[in-house]
Structure formats: structure tokens, C-alpha cells
């Protein structure tokens, strides 16, 4: 379990090593004794599924979190990374998935934000600008220091973040999913910058779900699974298959497609559905996509971040408007109906982000569960408490929510149980078609299996189920059909006998050159 | 307070966490205890404070703030704010006064004297109209509530001033020949010894309480304020709810305007200036969160009474009005401080997802498996295997 990476080459200098790092949140062990080395001037990539502990480890290295036990050695000396400021002083910077730039300020002001040059009363803008220009030249990106950041493309904004880290003399740069929102050409620019940084002795820790892409740039691969480092290897010794095998493991059985019943007619039919990009209206995030789902069928939509899965599901549920095409539910066009009307017709969505879109944190478990089906226990003007109680108790029983009862605070539940509340709330409306956007996000493997079992039970009773995921392993569980989305379109469709490699290849993970 | 609200929300099963916690009780019932303390302190300081008559007089002052506060509560529960209620109150009073003077249609050469009930209906409609403009701006045009209602604060006040040229209507009595007497019934008179204004407050409060706790609309209000995105995805007509609460707030302000001008037997265009702030204070003292989703009518009423009884008490014992302002401000800040203690305490109380929960969910999984094992053969025989 805690195999210590061995040094092979003598020029392979370890700049930072984490020894026996463990981190617990209450009784949840996010990391269990992880050993991890960062080599000078090389790229180390962390592989692992959601919840494997990658971000926890990175937060510890960058001072956001403190480890429960274990130590961090920088140049062989034990250091205490107590805060992000301390990390920055030690030369460790992190570039988050969501960039932390102030869009209203110029490139120059962003790079020197919080470390303005000059005296306490006046900023030395000229010097800042000169240094910014120099940095941009070094990075080979002709960005004018006075451009407001909001006018830059996302890839350029990322370069600005990198420049900021460099100007703070960072020796170790942690990049969390840096390519997830970039176009192929922007990825190339980023990789060129990374190679450039390597030659200057900057060490890089890289996290990405795009496995093939990461393989192009990395020198070392570290695989995490359930808080344990399961494998370490040098780039030359490994391939994609090795990573997937170590990431997923021999595996927890998430179930298999339910069989032994007859599927019904087409329940949901998407015809040439298009959705415009919210920020670039000319671009379509979902591009003339057609899909039929039968009653009793479970369809998995696999795709990388930015493939348009969320936009597709939200537009079908009525949250965002279609720019073309139609959504047909059991033969009736529901494209012009409101969310509430679609719920009434039997089309419901379990959103991706349960904290932001799924739960009302100020209401109890019971009130959350009954929120979508208030009509069922309303007589004339007033709600019936007795009948609401019935609805709530039935839901708690149906989706197996572990709670003190309907009156409990929603915050007292674990992530998995909260997710079951969101699912239970939508199932209480007796839908015909249920859409679930990443239903397994941020819940543990046991709860994940249970959610999937709920879905297959629903399908067995004639429910049409469409769920999206960014974890390949989940496609190979209960889905009768796997649809791979890439750049707003269906790039491939498979039956239940598909392999992980086929799915990954179709998703575009292998495409970027 | 919160215990009370939880019961009102139909969640009696919530466990208190065991043990009698005096600090928690005082914190959660703070508005109630504050009111008791105010009554006791002023009764000691002044012999005239503790009398039925004084309470009724003070209550009729509270009625104005109470009405505004209830409307404000609805808005704040959805996460909004309505700064225009004080101006709407003044505007409504002036509008009622204007109607009571008779509306002359010069073109036809007639003067119409609407009866009092029609004045009431028209004034409430005016309040609803003002609220509807606020609501539509906020819900559909995405104008921040603070800005939209701040604008309305000025516009409504300005229109009220324009209507009277800054003067006050003093003749609201009507005359029997014209059939428009009875305006004093709205607030000035007493019914069974109780000022009518207080009875109106009670009726509005009961209606609001029922609406919030026993109707789908109430649930929609709480969910919109708690998490509008989640509410929308659950089929709650969030935009309509937003417009409705501003309309109701406008109606409450119009009713308050009618009651106040009846109490004063005059309608001036500057009536109700800064009352919106008092109304917000009442809601906040009553334990509602300005971020929305938390609060109830009972607390808000208590909050209005705390403010009213405190300021009247200070008048009775002869404290200068400058000090009254200082005291009121201090009470508001203290209330918000206690609110944040209460709500942050609640967050800390949340236990992290524990292994105990995980293991028991796995136990449930196991039970579930046995269930399907029993069920599935039956299902398979019912429908021939096909897929």
C-alpha cells in the first residue's frame, strides 16, 4: 500500500516529498498514508477517480488543509505548510480549476494582486508593467499587460495565472484540471508552456481526467484510489490501460443492467436538440442531438467536462431554453412547457450539484422531499399535514434515507443520503422519465451502488432512466446503453457489452494531439 | 422561537438534541424574552406603563409597524427586501384622502364620492400595483431588489407629494349626505374596546401565518428564499412567487396607510417616512434571516411589539427622543448579532458524514437485496423474460 517511489536516475532530484500523509474528516478517511514525490523540473500527474483523494492531497500540499498525520519534506527539510501564504513563501502555487483572477482588472494588476510593487502610497505601475511584459515574453504569449482579464480567452487567462505563480517565484506549480475548459489549440499552447517551465526547473503537479492528454505531458504517474496510493510508475513504463486498471481497481460491483422484463415504447425522444453556449451565443454546447429512450431502459451518457452533458439534461428538463429541436415525452411535444409543467407530465431532473440546485438547506428533510409534489397533498387551498407525512415517510422508505425522520435538518445527513433526498423528491412526483446529472458525484461507493440499485429498480417498474457520468466505470454498471457525448454531439453509442477503452476513445480523450 | 416555528412547519419529530439547555432556550426565544423584559422594566420605571389602556394604545402604534413587518417578512423570506413600504404607506394614505374628498370628473361635470369600502379596495389595489411593479422589475428584469424598491421609495413619495402639493388632507370624516362616512372605523375607533387597527393586524397576521404554514404558496416562499435554483428545478414557480410577495407587501403597506390615516384622522404625504427600516428591524428582531428562507409570522409580530413597546416606553418615562433612536439602533444590531450566532451555531452542529451512517446504509442495502431477491422471481414470472 505505502510503497515508496524508488529513485532510478541520479539526476532525478526529489524537491518535495510527502511522507505518510493521512487526512480524516471526522470518521471519514480521505487520505490513508500516502507517499508522494515531486521531482525537480518534471511533471508528476495524479490519476484517480472523483473522491479518490486527489484534491485533498493537493489542498494539503498548498496549505489549504492540514494533514492529520505525516510530514512534508521540502529539499529534504520537514516543513509546515500552515496556510496558502506559507505555501507561496515556500514556492508552492496552485492553479485551481476555477481560475482565481479578478476579471475586471488588467493582466498587470492581476499578476501583482496582493503583492503590489512600490511604496504604501503609490504603486509602481511602470515597473509592474515591465515585469509583466517580461513574463509574457518568457511564456511566449503576446498578451498586453493592460488588457482586462475578462477580454482574454480562457486559455490566455490560465497563462496569466501561471505568470502570476512564476512572478511569485514558485518552484512547484500544482495544476488542477487545467485543460478541462480549453480548446485543442489552447491545450497545445499550455503544453508548450509546461515544457518551457520544466526546462527552467519548475516542478509541476498535474491533475486531469483526460488520461491520454496527461500521458503526453507527464514524467511520473501516481494513482490514487479511495485515499490510498495504489500505484507509481515512470512514464516510459506505463500506458493508458495500466492507469485505468489501477484507477478503477478490480472494482466494486455497481450492478448490472436489470433484465427479465419487457421494455415499453419510447418514453423520451430528443429530436435535433440544440442549446447555445451561455457565454458565446453563436456556439452550440449541444448540437442537433437526437436520442430515444424507452420506458424501462437505462441510458448512460458519458462525456468529459464541457462535452455538453449538463446543458443537454438541463435543457430537456426546461431549465435552459432550446435553440433548436424538440423534446417529446410519450408522444407529446413538451418543448414549450415550464419546468413545473414538465414535472407534472412526468419528466424530472436530478441536478448535478445537489447543494446548489438540489436541496433547500433551510428546510427539513421532509420539506425537501415533498417540495416537488406539494399538489399531491393539497386540498383546496391548504396542505394536509397527515398526507404530507405519508408522502415523506413513503419517500424515506423507498429510497432508503438514513435519517431521524422527516423533521431532521437536511445538513445532518451524509452526502449520499442528501443525494437520495434529491432523488426521492423527484421520484415522489411519480415520473415517467428521470434524468440524473452525475448522480454519483461526491458520494461514497456504498451509496453509489445503492443509488444505482434504486435506478434499476425504477427501470424494472417502467421508468425511463437517463444518467450522465464522467467516470467510465459507472457506464459499465446498470446501463443498457451507453451514449458517448463529445463537443455537444453523440460521438458513439454502445450496448451494455462495451469496454472502457472503447468509451474513452469515443469521448475524445484520445483525440487531442 | 425556532422550536415554535418548527412545530408550525409541521415537523414535530425534530429531536431537541437531549437535555435542557438554558442558553439555547434564551437564544431561540430571545424576542419573547426581550418583550417580557421590556414590559417588566418599564412597569417598574413608570406606574402608567402597566395598564390595559396603555397596552391598547401602544398596540395601535404597533399595528402600523406590524402590518408593514408582515409584508416585509414575506419579501425577506424569499431573499428579497422591500424598501418602498414606508413611501407606499404614505402614498396610500394620500390616495385614500384624495378619494374621500370626492373625485371630480370635470368633463362630465360630476363629483363622485366613493363609499369607504370602495376607498379601501381602491387603496389596496394601488398598494398591489406598486408592489407588482417592484416584483416584475425584480423577478423578470433582474433588477436587484434593493435598487428596484429604493427607486420606488422615491417615486411613491414623490407622487404622494405631487398629489397634494405637499399638503395634508384633514377632512377624512366624509358626510352622511354623500354616504361616505366611516373612515374612522379603520383605525381610530374601537371594537369591543380594542382599537380596530390592532384587530386588522391580528387578521392579517393569522392570514399570513396560515398562508406560510398551511398552503403550497407558503412552502414556495420558504423554498424560493432557501434556494431559488433548487426550488425552480422542483417545479416551484419562483418568478410568480417573487412577484406575489411584493404585491402582498404593497397591499400590507396600503392597509397600514389606511389604518394610520384613520388613526390620525388626516392623510399627509410624508407619513411613514423611514418606516421601511422599522419594518425590517421588526422582521430581523423576530429571528428571520435576511438571506431568506428562515423566519415566521410569530417572531415578526414579537419583533414589531419589541420595537413599539420599547419606543413608547422610552417616551413614557421621558427619555429624550435622541436616546430613543440610539436604543432602537442598539436593539436592532443586538438582534442581528444573535441571529448570526444562532444560524452559525446550527451549521457547526451538523455532524460530518460518519462511518456509522455509511455502515448502516450498507446494512440497509443488504436488507434491500433480500427484498428484491424475494420479489424478482414473482416479477419475472409475471412478465416473460424478453430483453
TrEMBL record, chain A:
Residues 16-251, 270-512 form the ABC transporter domain. InterPro entries: AAA+_ATPase, ABC_carbohydrate_import_ATPase, ABC_transporter-like_ATP-bd, ABC_transporter-like_CS, P-loop_NTPase. SMART domains: AAA. It is a peripheral membrane protein. Pfam families: ABC_tran. One of its GO terms (molecular function) is ATP hydrolysis activity. Keywords: ATP-binding, Cell membrane, Membrane, Nucleotide-binding, Repeat, Sugar transport, Translocase, Transport. This is Sugar ABC transporter ATP-binding protein. PROSITE patterns: ABC_TRANSPORTER_1, ABC_TRANSPORTER_2. Its main location: membrane. GO terms for cellular component: plasma membrane. CDD domains: ABC_Carb_Monos_I (cd03216), ABC_Carb_Monos_II (cd03215). It is found in: Cell membrane. It comes from Litchfieldella anticariensis (strain DSM 16096 / CECT 5854 / CIP 108499 / LMG 22089 / FP35).
TrEMBL record, chain B:
One of its GO terms (molecular function) is transmembrane transporter activity. Belongs to the binding-protein-dependent transport system permease family. AraH/RbsC subfamily. Keywords: Cell inner membrane, Cell membrane, Membrane, Transmembrane, Transmembrane helix, Transport. This is Sugar ABC transporter permease. Residues 346-387 are annotated as: Disordered. The chain crosses the membrane at residues 31-52, 58-77, 89-110, 116-141, 153-172, 192-212, 243-261, 273-292, 299-317, 323-341. It comes from Litchfieldella anticariensis (strain DSM 16096 / CECT 5854 / CIP 108499 / LMG 22089 / FP35) (Halomonas anticariensis). Residues 355-374 have a biased composition (Polar residues). It is a multi-pass membrane protein. GO terms for cellular component: plasma membrane.
